[in-house]
Design goal:
By secondary structure, the chain is of the alpha/beta class. The chain is built from eleven helices and twelve strands. The strands form three sheets. The protein has a six-stranded mixed sheet with strand order 6-7-8-3-9-10. The chain has a four-stranded antiparallel sheet with strand order 2-1-4-5, covered by helices on one side. The chain has a two-stranded antiparallel ribbon with strand order 11-12. Helix 3 packs across helix 4, helix 3 runs parallel beside helix 5 and helix 4 packs across helix 5. The two termini are 33 Å apart. One of its GO terms (molecular function) is ATP binding. Keywords: ATP-binding, Nucleotide-binding, Transport. This is ABC transporter ATP-binding protein.
């Protein structure tokens, strides 16, 4: 079972540079959430704050009643046992084979026997499709395999929260699709809380239950996938649909001249909301919502063609 993460009034600066201020959101237990934002908006800093590697100047991060932004180091150590983290490049030890890399947290943080360690490691490597590669060194495998090995290592302590930093970085579209499917399948199996930082818009439109957008030193919006994909808020609409018309420019914000030049331009129509990725088993995840449910509940008419599949017509349109 995943656990809820409740963030309230979080503010982080480095010297005089404010990264973001007053970030408030609740990441629902057991669901898959994605955090987006233009480069340099502090998405990775946000992940590091959630696990207590970086301390905010203000605000709280409540996990099972403990505020990890202010708790003693001993309590933080215990709370961190709830987490698994997949870093951008997998963060493998280059001199260790994949088996020993994946086994490292078990040997470091538990007193399990080597036979128990082997059973757990092979179970997790099977989950990510790496059985047979356990004797390879990280330098002998592809970037996609290193990501999967990093994911297996993040899973060995059976975390209730998985933090995943730009899993698509350096991957081609096909391998990005494979790792997206893997996340959905894992969520269906282990029911952990997933928070994924990504720049990949296609992944954002099809994978998560919830989406957040950091922009201009604040959280622009966080909520169910359909809420953001149907949003008319200019920043959200522009970023999630990869459009040039809107307030975001090459240097995060457009200047006054750029905004004046496009003031009479209409934003392109919202594209259809795609169907959410489903588990390979065909059995819906426990927290997965039916297509169009949020739109119906909130009286929102989705863009034409939303929720269409090859075998069915539009649902909720």
């Amino acid at each position: 079972m995943g656990v809820e993460i409740k963030v309230d009034g979080l503010t982080k600066s480095f010297g005089k540079q404010v990264i973001w201020r007053d970030v408030t959101l609740t990441i629902p237990a057991g669901e898959v959430s994605v955090m987006l934002g233009p480069s340099g908006t502090g998405k990775s800093v946000f992940l590091k704050s959630l696990i207590g590697l970086i301390k905010p100047e203000q605000g709280s991060i409540l996990i099972e009643g403990t505020d990890i932004a202010s708790c003693p180091e001993r309590e933080l150590y215990e709370i961190r046992k709830l987490f698994g983290v997949l870093f951008q490049d997998g963060a493998m030890f280059g001199s260790m084979n994949l088996f020993d890399n994946v086994a490292f947290p078990l040997r470091e943080h538990t007193k399990k026997s080597e036979s128990e360690v082997r059973n757990i490691v092979m179970e997790k490597m099977d989950l990510v499709g790496l059985v047979g590669a356990e004797d390879k060194l990280p330098g002998e495998i592809s970037g996609g395999m290193r990501k999967r090995a990093g994911l297996a290592r993040a899973l060995v302590l059976d975390p209730e929260i998985l933090l995943i930093d730009e899993p698509d970085s350096g991957l081609d579209p096909v391998r990005t699709s494979f790792i997206n499917q893997l996340f959905i399948d894992l969520n269906a199996q282990i029911d952990a809380t997933f928070l994924i930082v990504t720049h990949d818009i296609n992944s954002t439109r099809t994978v998560p239950d919830n989406i957040g957008l950091l922009y201009h030193k604040h959280l622009a919006m966080f909520g169910p996938r359909e809420m953001l994909l149907s949003s008319e808020e200019p920043v959200v609409r522009q970023f999630l649909n990869a459009q040039t018309v809107g307030p975001i420019g090459m240097s995060e914000e457009k200047d006054a001249d750029e905004l004046e030049a496009e003031k009479d331009l209409e934003m392109p129509p919202l594209p259809p909301i795609p169907l959410q990725l489903e588990p390979s088993s065909g059995i819906p995840r426990r927290h997965q919502r039916p297509p169009g449910e949020w739109c119906k509940e909130n009286g929102v008419t989705p863009p034409p063609g939303s929720f269409e599949s090859t075998t069915a017509g539009a649902i909720g349109a």
